[in-house]
Hints:
The protein has helices at 24-31, 37-40, 129-136, 141-167, and strands at residues 13-20, 44-49, 61-68, 72-84, 88-93, 101-109, 115-123. It is α+β, with helices and mostly antiparallel strands. The radius of gyration is 16 Å and the shape is globular. The model is unreliable at 174-178 (pLDDT under 50).
Amino acid sequence: MEWTGARYMDGPTVEVRERIAASPERVWELVSDIGLMPALSAELRSARWLDGADGPRLGARFVGRSRHESLGEWETTSYVVACAPPYEFAWAVSDPENPGALWRFSLAARDDGGTDLTQWMRMGPGRSGLSLAIDRMPDKEQKIVFVRMREFERGMAATVDAIKRLAEGAPTGQGAGA
């Protein structure tokens, strides 16, 4: 990730891609399993569906608990804003109309039977935990945003790599990504 000088209100984005030698249906099983994600993440500690939901569907909610060395521990409720098996799974953090972040997995079938997987996220436009750090140090906003986006990029790369290994049948280590 290169320095862009982005501010939080700019809605900076990051995405990572991976070619996976498994069908979109197999990859979908993994990316839409919120219970699996803590095993693939350095930050996410737990995730569970709310309101009696037992899997992804448009409008479903889930709660995630996270921990970061510099930011502490927190819990957020996310809302499924796109659910099109086996091609797209997206959720908005905290408020679907004004999310603190928007996350998306996109899957594209390849001619060879495999899948191109993309994980994408956009920061903001709603407030998030990062907003508190920016409030305390507004003169460092661009650096705070840049550092956090780099962390997301590294974590997302580790997550899609772990999904690739699982989808292709190889074991994966715990705590690999973000």
